Amino acid sequence: MLTRRSLLKGVLATPVAFIANRLPAVPTNPPFTDDYGVASGDPQADRVILWTRVPEVAQRPFGEVVTVSYQVTTTADFSAGSIAAEGDLQTSGSADYTVKVVADGLTPATPYYYRFWTDTGYQSVVGQTKTAPLSDAHPQEISFAFVSCQNFTQGFYTAYAHLAREQVDFCVHLGDHIYEAGHVGLKHGYVREDNIGGGQATDLGTYRQKYQLYLSDPYLREVRRCFPWIVLWDDHELVNNYAGPQVAQQSPQRQRDAYTAFLEYMPVQPIQPLSPNNPAQVRLYRQLAFGDLLEVFALDERQYRDGLVCERDFLTAGCPELEDPTRTMLGEAQRV
């Protein structure tokens, strides 16, 4: 059967093979590291979100708090006169020892370096980030990259190795940071194994493990370190073809767990936090300005869409319900 993915695989087979031959080999089962690196996101003119996770070797027993210090500076050597922001915050097992901080009071359109450390022995790598220009500034150019659909089991992240070398200002991730379904063994063309949850994330623990597995890839860690990200989600952060009320009605706890893990591991600060009620809701759609040159509308194409009415695949006929003109992918909320 011809599917969208199989068609794309055929089209892309030659350039992907060419890239792979020019890059260092990545072992089929790369050695796992519990240091998940750093990341930054949602750049604005005076602030940016910084992220890390305290690795297991630097954690205290579950539930005990770890104090994390951070610094943001204009120079790579973190000299005293170049420090633009610094502070302390706390994390614990309740957040899976992930850390997010909004570093503010920064200068527009300025590159920065940042790092984290703890009194338990963690010293992060140095991250690179950048603020956006003021909304009324007149930048001549801004360079963006965008990526999506990074299925760990179906290939190596050689594109990320190349992207990390590019001189881009910002990067947009369009979703599918993880795939909830994995594959046990390396049969049927899968090149890396993902047996978490027996191949299926269904609760908070297994969703967290998916992000950890994906961040075991050194190319992914490096590209998250290099520049600030604007992250969206798609369906696989929860479940394949997730649409609107579908999962909320069937498994509200699974939806809450998937949302929680995404918010823990992504450098994003929701506009409205995860709601305590069921079904869980969180507002991620937002607007970011980059001078008078560009506005980015980061939209949520999953949480507000109408539910599935029929199953279809690439180049196959749908059902009459798909033609209903009242159906929506974005919902009414994002139209405001």
Description:
By secondary structure, the protein is an alpha+beta fold. The chain has a domain of 90 residues: Immunoglobulin-like. Helices cover 19% and strands 20% of the residues. The chain is built from six helices and twelve strands. Strands 4-3-6-7 form a four-stranded antiparallel sheet. The chain has a three-stranded antiparallel sheet with strand order 1-2-5. Helix 3 runs parallel beside helix 6. The protein is globular. 33% of the residues are buried.
What's the gist of this structure?
This protein has 336 residues and is α+β, with helices and mostly antiparallel strands.
Average pLDDT reading: 88
CATH class of the domain at 42-131: Mainly Beta
The CATH homology group name of the domain at 42-131: Purple acid phosphatase-like, N-terminal
- Decide which structural class fits the backbone: alpha+beta
What descriptive keywords fit this protein?
336 residues; alpha+beta; Immunoglobulin-like; 4-stranded antiparallel beta sheet; 3-stranded antiparallel beta sheet; 12 strands; globular; disordered N terminus
Give the topology, please.
Layout: H1 4-22, E1 38-41, E2 47-53, E3 66-73, E4 83-91, E5 98-104, E6 111-118, E7 127-130, E8 144-147, H2 158-163, E9 170-173, H3 204-214, H4 218-226, E10 229-231, H5 246-250, H6 252-265, E11 286-290, E12 294-298
Parallel strand pairs: 8-9, 9-10
Antiparallel strand pairs: 1-2, 2-5, 3-4, 3-6, 6-7, 11-12
